[in-house]
Amino acid sequence: MNFSRRHLLGLEGFNREEILFLLDTAASFKEISEREIKKVPTLRGKTVVAAFFEPSTRTRISFEIAAKRMSADFVSLSGSTSSATKGETLLDTARNLAAMQPDILVLRHPSAGAPHLLAQCLECSVVNAGDGCHEHPTQALLDLLTIREQKGRIEGLVVAIVGDILHSRVARSNLYALRTLGAEVRLVGPRTLLPPECAALAFTTTDLREGVAGADVVMLLRLQRERQVGNFIPSVDEYARYYCLTEAHLRLAKPDVIVMHPGPLNRGIEISSEVADGPYSVILDQVANGVAVRMAVLYLLGTGARRADAETERPQLAAIGRARRRASR
Amino acid sequence: MSLWIRGGLVIDPANDLELVADLHVVNGRIAAVVAAGSVRPDDSDLVIQAEGLWVVPGLIDMHVHLREPGYEYKETVATGTAAAVAGGFTAVACMANTLPVNDSAAVTEFILERARMAGLARVYPVGAVSKGLQGKELAEMGEMHRAGIVAVSDDGQPIEDASLMRRALEYASTFGLPVIAHEEDRALSQGGVMNEGEWSFRLGLRGIPKAAEEAMVARDLAILERTGGHLHIAHISTAGSVELVRAAKRRGLPVTAEATPHHFSLTEAAVAGYNTHAKMNPPLRTEEDVRALREGLLDGTIDCIATDHAPHHTDEKLCEFDRAANGIIGLETALPLTLAMAREIGWSRKQMIAALSTNPARILRVPGGSLTVGAPADITLIDPELTWLVEAESLHSRSRNTPFLGRELRGRAVMTLVGGEIKWRLGEPGEGERT
Does residue B240 fall inside a structural domain? Predict the structure, then answer.
């Protein structure tokens, strides 16, 4: 298959073949990380810039290791040390980075759509490493890879996604990709965090027991306490009382159920330690697969044919850009 | 000074007139409307041939932001009124959220002076309801009324304090000024950047529920029951609000309402791809709401069409969606968008021109809105079949923030006269093609 995308902005709109091709590519790269010398020269001479405007440990390190195992040069900047603190706009920061000719820009940003903005304004490939409450495509890909390894398939599986659906980019990316691959998705959470629109996309319930009953996979979301301002839940304790996954819940699921979590864990809030550390948990497999998935993404975008389609995606803004360039001449 | 506009289809809802006729203008006023070809113009008369065109009372946009004073990098009175006449508008009412706010006679006079200097469309300033748009104390409406305001509004901001709204309705009625209300319950809309629904969920953007508007419309209609006066609902956007206004009108309440071309032409789906040109407040809503707005226009629940022309610099739109400024320019695209909608809902030409001219004149109690003999010769000539491409380079506004860039639209003002003087004439090649 010919992977023709220039950016990875989200999984909504990706077709089955594209997702499977990404997973197959990632699976084939896993072996590199098991070698004694964990490095291949595939992306030698390519430059990956990671710009993280939100705190992140796991994702940033995962991208860095992935880039380095592929021999790409990797540079990262984080929001708190960047000139964003001096009032520079995102677009100006990105244009300056782009002027240094990177091949791939990996962006994490608190605003939904920020990677889309850069994708239409920059020449390089853009990878969305999490944009606000929108999508986190590499997280969903590593989740899918983990499920497929554990279950041998994705189609027909019952996957319960539990927690703050409203604010979760992990939930959205997984929801789109799982549906595309034919899984049955259930969304579970309190009504305040489970908007009515979800019902058109998946089975929804506020009852964790109902949500996990017969499930093949339970995917927990981190309760982002910083997003709970606005009376979404009365208290973290009450949330835990109703949505903390315990072994008792798992007895309602399929006997071979697996439990996933994107991290970082809030032990005792969305996941009990007995589950996190128990036999059902595949949380550390997810982390390992994260490197393989990001290697695959960087590889496919870094070696793919450059297409000058930046201006076809957003003709209006491109037209403004042209007018401004003319005006400035 | 005598001129004839000959052979056009004269549409004058105020006089229930729609016929091919010749219109005679003398000294800036309508002198006669006579059967086509029945009077031979003098040799010294200026003759405008208008066969195939509509000849209508000048369009009036009762909701624009001219940004002067204070935000001249977005728009000025001169560039805004240039856009107005190019769009067929002979008069605009400009909102008070300038810098300084138009909450005093001095600012009102400044705007009127700028309008005189520009010498294009008529400009009717709208004064602030509250000092500094702070929502606390009433602005000096009487002083501003003497200086020339035609309505009061804190547009851009809702009037959160119900008691202030009550007093505003009561006090403004002293001067016959409508209170134009931007209806939004900030406690419900807080932080929202688009309509709350399917698309806000998919795009991961904070939503503004329809209830944020409807709750406020309901509140103000309840207040109006007691106060009397004149409440005008700005940029009505939801089916629920339309129904509230319909019921209130049935009860005889003194309420009027306007709808914008973008709210009756586009849905929230226009935000897809994080298109900041589809970001406005109130936000674009759903198909159901678009249908309700059109029904409201058709049955007269919604009295008029107003653009909420809101110019912003490119930098204020070319950024993250949640940081982008609200609003789009509308003066130069309102007419073709209204024509398209009118064709779809089967609106009569008279109803359409009433919503674009006669009704806003009546709501604001300003001259114009009719071709009555003796009235100022504010006249727009429309070619309803001219198709043209909306291009950044050809817009007259200082700003370019419109989702219709690159779109081919049908129908355009080809000449705009204010007080009998030609202020706009379509002429340059490439400005349109007849189909």
Answer: yes
